[in-house]
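hey can u check if this looks right to u? its 521 residues, i copy pasted from the old doc so theres a chance i mangled smth
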Amino acid sequence: MCIWSVKKIASLSLALMFLAMVFTPFCLWLMSSDQERSGFEKRTLQELPRCALKWQSLVTFPKRMEKYYRDHFGLRDQLIAWHNLIHVRLFRKSPNDAVTLGSENWLFYNADHCLADFLGLWRGNREQFEAWRRIIRDRQIWLADRGVNYLVVIVPTKMMVYPQFLPLRIREFAGVAILEEFLRYVRDKDGGHGLVDLLDPLHELEPYPSFFRTDTHWNGLGAFRAYKVIMEDIRQWYPEITPLHEARIRNVSTEFRGDLSTMLNLSSQLREQSVRVRISDPCSREIESDEQGSLLRVESECVDNPHTLLMIHDSYGMYIRPFFDETFRRVLYTRTHLPQLKEVVARESPSVIVDQVAARYFSRMLGQDVEITNYVMRKHWRNSKDLRLYIDRDGGGEHLRSRHHLMRISHDEKGVLLHATGPDPHVELRFPHTPVPDSFLIHMELTSPGETTMQFFYTTGANPSFVPERVISRELKKGYNELLFRLPHPDIQGRLRFDPGMIKGSYILHSLRIKGEWYGI
């Protein structure tokens, strides 16, 4: 009888425990308010679905309610944390695909192409590298004509800096990251002027590494190492600027919880001893931001040089700002990209612009600005003496060769007449492409019989045929058009196909000239 009672009590206890486990999350959900966003998942959580008296709404309501409840049931964060802790401590494996668990408690960020880039799977090509290089050079020229020097600072990923702490299964398949390829390309092309390479300076591990173990960012010491390299470049322009002396830098050991441990929901368990950098006797002070809050001003009371720095930065820049605060008389900080800062540049007249961005986002930062590009092309066109080809009313028409029955060529006092008797008319022309300049500029004056699209197909050493992937297109209005543009590939050959338009009629080619463009930086 006693044994039977014990078994009955045990069974009842198990049943009650089971019911508690099942209903506790539900009851806690009923009693708690919904969160809008998950801090460790960095995403917006599902909202309570609405059910309307419509067939589609009624059919989809159960699925929408299930998604909502999965995001809000009671003890959700705690259960996920326990689940993740078991994976990390017991199986030595990250439960989050965006995070890799390395040796010695190093965590690495995988998303935003970081892992693919480290493995060499995010490949670049010479055409893309050349486009990025030209954007940087155009910005430098445009700003230099306004008395401003321009530096691009790309912060490498933690995987690139400390690959020795990655798991062997990843480390042994390491490739060449696109940033490394780009830096090498620019160095070989023009010496890499104005593009700061931080890979080697950040490799140091003593007295502390340059990056947090549990975070995607560099720490204050890594930022100071980067600051010293940046200042070497700035002092080539302004040797009178005195960098912040290391004697004023004090490294304070501190406990830190990074964003990667937060992504695992293990910020309490995965903590690290890191470094917080302090500056002795700081003399800078922040001034109010502008009305939009997009420009922070800092002034220093103990700096002798009169120079102003404008720094464009992302979250990495927060760690480097204290050093610049103590180096320049005035510093402006913003997260707005350069093409949107023309009024600020004109108003504030900075001596230097430092444009800092994380490696995984740098291609987004290098967006072309039509105004800047056109300014530089016009300047180079005026200054270039490297004329490779000309066609106008006085001569040069022999360079045009028509192999198309829909195109007839004649001449009059206005220029070369291109008579198109059908769609897709075109001619071919050749020009000397050696010695190889930075790029080729084409200037053209053309009268069109109507609104249409002009095209230039170009050839390269690797692709000597005319293909749709190698074309420059420009919209033409009816009447007179003047155009100036670049041939974008770094390996242009001297053979072009010129399609003046896509409609029938007579086109007047008043002039067509090709010059070599030389940056001279």
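Residues 224 and 320 are 6 Å apart (CA to CA).
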